[in-house]
Amino acid sequence: MIRLDGKEVSKALRKTLAQSVEKTKRPPGLGVILVGEDPASQVYVRNKMKACSEVGMESVEIQLPSSASEDELITAIAAMNENPGVDAYLIQLPLPKKFNEQEMIGRIDPKKDADGLTVENLGLLMAGRPRSVPCTPNGVMQILKFYDIDVVGKNVVVIGRSQIVGKPMAQLLLAANATVTVCHSKTENLFEHTQRAEIVVVAAGQPKFLKKEAFKKGAVVIDVGMHRLPSGKLCGDVDPEGLENWVSALTPVPGGVGPMTITMLLQNTLSLYQASESAT
Ligand code: NAD
């Protein structure tokens, strides 16, 4: 079994990114709006800022307390939209419950949408003219590409239909000429689908819920799931027990899809910078 090492893929892509950034007229800028004091979100934001500086990009952060009003968040979004040093930005999710996430995402200038989550960018993806693409599924595509895993004509099952992972994942695979089946919480006889798939992408958000019997021998398994166990250890949606001599390739958790997400965020920042430069 090949261990699909997202850290390795990330390292290679970030090297190329840094070389491209060196050639830009000014450093591309990534903005992050963080609302509240959630420790996990704070760590994610810190990692994004660090990754920016490692490839020579600027970062701009706006922090608001969880007590912030909707108007304050709207003002922060407008400030990012108007800041010429910010080429791309995101609102760190999840937002505290009192905010309507979709409405706030809808206020992001689609030309600065680092996560590719605005309706315009999701629509462009669907129309086959991608601008900025949701980072996690894009990271999965890069892993497949790096390891020369051909998806053309292959039966690929995507488990999960969220806006951020499952749906864009299916679109990207379709655009790459895979034969895509999307399964979800209401799918009947899930294993009938997974057992005939050459590639399974699992993004169900259920710790270790897929075991060896879910996959056909030789399948490629991409585990997007990320969970912290009570022991403090991380695990995915797939139980790796017994998979070593069964599947042909697997992304580990941690160290598989996870490291790709920030790299794709940097990639989106660079391409949005380049698009805005060529428009002026
Ligand atoms: P979500 O909860 O929004 O969506 C889960 C999807 O899985 C839903 O569409 C649901 O229908 C489906 N589902 C749930 N239980 C199922 C079951 N038993 N059988 C079949 N389908 C089922 O989650 P999400 O935001 O798409 O994230 C999915 C997982 O990926 C989570 O574990 C999350 O932590 C992880 N994630 C990781 C990264 C990363 O960078 N590695 C990024 C985003 C999400």
Key descriptive features of the protein:
280 residues; alpha/beta; Rossmann fold; three-stranded parallel β-sheet; 11 strands; 39% helix; binds nicotinamide-adenine-dinucleotide
Q: What characteristic shape results from the CA principal axes? A: globular
Q: What compounds sit in this structure?
A: nicotinamide-adenine-dinucleotide
In the sheet with the most strands, the strands line up as 1-11-8-7-5-6
N- and C-termini, Cα separation: 49 Å
- CATH topology tier name of the largest domain: Rossmann fold
Regions with pLDDT < 50 over 5+ consecutive residues?
none
**Contiguous helical run count:** 9
Mean pLDDT: 97
Name the helicity range.
Answer: 25-40%
The name of the CATH superfamily of the largest domain reads NAD(P)-binding Rossmann-like Domain
User: According to CATH, what is the class of the largest domain?
Assistant: Alpha Beta
Description:
The chain is built from 9 helices and 11 strands. With 280 residues, it is an alpha/beta fold. It folds into 2 domains: 84 residues, Rossmann fold; 124 residues, 3-Layer(aba) Sandwich (Rossmann fold), CATH 3.40.50. Strands 1-11-8-7-5-6 form a 6-stranded parallel beta sheet. A 3-stranded parallel beta sheet has the order 3-2-4, with helices on both faces. Strand 9 and strand 10 form a beta hairpin. The longest helix has 22 residues. It starts with a strand and ends with a helix. The model has no long low-confidence stretch (mean pLDDT 97). It binds nicotinamide-adenine-dinucleotide. Nicotinamide-adenine-dinucleotide (NAD) binds next to helix 9.
